[in-house]
Structure formats: C-alpha cells, structure tokens
Amino acid sequence: MDLTNLTIPEIRSALTSRRASAEEIVRAHLVKIEERDREIHAYLTLSPERALAKAREIDHLVASGAPLPPLAGVPIAIKDVILTRGVRTTCASRILDNYIPPYDATAVERLEAAGACLLGKTNCDEFAMGSSTENSGYGPTRNPHDLERVPGGSSGGSAAAVAARLATAALGSDTGGSIRQPAAFCETVGMMGTYGRVSRYGLVAFASSLDHIGPFARTVRDVALVLRTIAGRDPNDSTSADIPVPDYVAALDESVRGLRIGVPGEYFAGLNAEIADNLQKGIDLLARLGCQIKSVRLPHTEYAIACYYIIATAEASSNLARYDGVRYGVRSTGYRDLREMYEKTRNRGFGAEVKRRIMLGTHVLSSGYYDAYYLKAQKVRTLLARDFVQAFEEVDAVVTPTSPIPPFKIGERIDDPLQMYLTDIYTVTADLAGVPGISVPCGRTRSLPHLPVGMQLLGKHFDEASLLCIAHAFEQAGGFAAGS
Ligand code: GLN
Q1: Is the CB–ligand 1 distance for residue 90 below 6 Å?
Q2: Are 315 and 308 contacting, i.e. CB atoms less than 8 angstroms apart?
Q3: How much is the pLDDT for 481?
Q4: What is the pLDDT of residue 246?
Q5: Residue 422 CB contacts under 8 Å (≥ 6 apart), including other chains
Q6: 30 C-beta closer than 6 A to ligand 1
Q7: Within a domain: 261
Q8: Nearest in space to 4 (alpha carbons), one of 35, 37, 27
Q9: CA 463 to chain centre
Q10: Which residues of the chain carry a pLDDT beneath 50?
Q11: Could you write out the DSSP letters of every residue in 418-479?
Q12: Ligand 1 in contact with 312 (CB < 6 A)?
C-alpha cells in the first residue's frame, strides 16, 4: 500500500483497521518529499517534528480505542502566507525571511485540532501576487505533471504538493484565483468558499476585501472534509460570517438531477480551442447527469480584470505599508537615518512584482486619480456582483473554464505582466462578487503533452454545498480523477 496515495477516508480506514499508523503515513510523505521535492520545490519550510508529534498523538488514540477526530493522521501542507506558530512564515518574500509567527491561523488551529499533521509550508508568489509561483523570492515551483511548466499561482506550492503526493490536502489563499487556477494547472480540486465562510485570522493580508483561505485535495470529498473543518464563525475575524456551516460531506450524495447550471457566453468567447473542447465535454456530462443547462449572461465580465487590478493593488499598497524593517522581518543595514532604513529595507526585501503593485495601488489611491480609478472600480465591482445575483435568479450554479489557457512554460510570461494578469480573467469575478467557486479536473488537452484542464463552478453566496455536490457527481461520473 502506497501511503502517500490515500484519500482522507482511506487514511481513516487504514488507521482504524491498523494497517498503517499515523506515524508511518507521515514518514512516507517525508520520504517522498525528500525524493521528489528537490525537482518540484513545493515546500519552503518543513515541520517534521510537529507532524510526527501529532501523528504519535493520533496513534495513542488509536491504541486506546478512543474515537478519532475527523482528519486524524491526514498529512497537510500550508501555503506560506498563513501563520504557523513557531514555524517560519515568509510569504515567499525575502522581507520576511526570518519571520517566526507567535500564533497559528484559525484554519491551521482547526485542522490540527481535527487531527491533521502539518508537514510544512508551501511556496507561492510573493505575498500571493501572481499566477505562476514564479514571483517567489525563493525560486519557482514546478508543475509535477510537466516539470518545464508552472503549477499556476499564487498557491502553486500547495497545488503541486497535493498533485505529487507530497501532502494529502493543503491550504491555499484566493484573492483573484490563487486556489482555483493552480488546482486546474496541477489536476487537483481546489475550493474557495463564500467571502466570510472561512476565518482569515492569521492569513497575511494582500487585499482584505478579496482574500480567502481554502482547501486543495485530490478528490471533492477530501475538499469537503477539509472545508467542513475550517469553515464557520471565528470571533478573531470580524469578517467571518455567523452563518451555520452545513454538512458538506453529507451534501455530496444529494442528487444533481434537475439542478440548473448556467453557461455564461462571456466566458467562452474566443476561448482556446482545446480548453473549449474539454469544457463542452464537461458540460455534456453535466447534462447527462440530469442537470438542466441554460445560457446566462454576466454582462460586465469584460471589466473584471481592470476592476480587480485596481482594487487589489490599492488594498495591497495599504496592507504592505507595515513591512518597514521595524515591526516584522528583515531590516537592511548600512543606513544613515530612519527614512533610509525604510527605503533600503523595502527596496531589498520586496521583489519586482510586489513593488509594481505598491506603485500601481498608490497611484490609483492618490488624490488626483482616486475618483477616476479606485472609486470607479468600486462601482464596477457592484455591477459585477449584481450580474451574479441576477444570474442566480435563473440558475443554481454557473460553469466556466478555470483558466483561459493550459499550464504555460516557466519563463514564458514572466516578462509581460499584462499577459500574466490576463490569465486571471475567469477567476477574479468570483472574488469581486464574493461568491464561492471550485475547480475540478476536466480531462487533458488533446494535443501533446496532454495538459490538465480545470472546470470552474461558481455558486450562490453561502451555497458551497451545491458546488461540492455537482463537482462530486461530475468527478464520479467522468473518470476525470486527478493524477490519472
Ligand atoms: N493572480 C492574481 C494576482 O496576481 C490572484 C492572486 C491571488 O488570488 N492571490 O493578483
């Protein structure tokens, strides 16, 4: 039995039947990381002692016959923008090279309380700004399915770790697509709940009105299990919603027959032919499962990228003001006065993309331009959100491609920021509207080298359950399982 290949229910049955111990499961992952992560570079920091201590705790529970918590012995990886007490958290930025958080994010605390074993912290674009993980201050992560290609971003390390069996599940963050797009590129399942569904206490802020924490796994059921654990009100995050969390796992087995699924024409116009082909097959499959397919309109979609890159950079420029060499992380040496200390620290500590965003964000917020850019973008955001509310009067979910293109080669887009920004076209809308989204594998491209394609499902506010239910039925019927 390959212990790195197990799903969460399989881990549970291996433990309860005593076919494997939690310690063996964790060690199998650590060995695999040792073997494979040199080439993939999914992890920035490993926490083997912490994972093994938790595994031994679980093994004691098994031995004593006590009931096991829901994620007992599940090896997990955490994106390095999420705080872990005592374990270095860099945000893939040199400015936080030495930062050791004094507390755990709520999502991490809940996962460990549910029995999960924290293997380490995963690589990402610096401060989650990017779509390829090439903006990491520590070098890129490679796509496990094709090492010359990017794993997507910004949570590329989490997606790659799960795809390569270097973790069973992982947490990522999504501000404009950073969970769903790498999930699609690495042929895994990735989900972002409704804004406010999962506490962001301990998530390093990028753009606070858009940031989410969410899970990656190789099956929809595993994603549901992780989401169920991390979702729900947290008094430490005032934006977390006080709305009961349904049993996402029970929802998987509901029927999808009769559910109305909308196809927004705006997301298919001029689409890459191979992605369009896979999506059409996916939509046909949803129809065969009994879903009612309808066309819907999301008319403001064309403004989404511009709107996102104004709001996200504006918020980022404000959030990143705190890295001043005094409160957190690295301080540059050789300065004459305070101002020079700030300048040297920020100039050396931040990478090019982060600096670009700070400048763009400062510009759109500056007094002469605020109305023309920031205020206008906020109005457009309202229109985009209204598009979804109106579409959801007619349908229960919307289906779209996750990414307009398949995983691209490392280096191919990095010198053209606009091209990179445009890859987020299908994902930023859900963050702007605050609606939940999931990406599930939808086959491979027909031409060599047969790259993964993702299908995105977007749903009503706080209706993650329908998305999980549809995605699960699709996964079960399609043979589109990850890694196949
Ligand atoms: N690719 C988008 C960006 O660079 C989204 C990033 C994210 O979701 N964290 O802003």
Answers
A1: no
A2: no
A3: 47
A4: 97
A5: 305, 404
A6: no
A7: no
A8: 27
A9: 18
A10: 481-484
A11: HHHHHTTTTTHHHHHHT--EEEEEEEE-SSTT--EEEEEEEE-TT-HHHHHHHHHHHHHHHT
A12: yes
Return the pLDDT at 483.
40
Which residue is catalytic, options 32, 54, 79, 121? 79
Instruction: Select which of 178, 240, 317, 403 is catalytic.
Output: 178
Is residue 125 a part of any domain in this protein?
A: yes
21 in a structural domain: yes
399, amino acid identity: V
Distance CA 473, CA 293 (A): 15
Q: Is residue 430 part of a domain?
A: no
Q: Whose structure tokens read 């759109």?
A: 364
Q: What is the pLDDT of residues 282-293, one digit of tens each?
A: 999 999 999 999
CATH of the domain at 176: 3.90.1300.10
pTM of the model: 0.97
Q: Is 79 a catalytic residue?
A: yes
Q: What is the pLDDT of residue 480?
A: 61
Please give the residue range of the domain that contains residue 45.
8-250
Please state, in angstroms and rounded to a whole number, the distance separating the CA atoms of residues 299 and 264: 9
| Domains held by the chain: number | 1
Q: Are 93 and 126 in contact (CB under 8 A)?
A: yes
154 is catalytic: yes
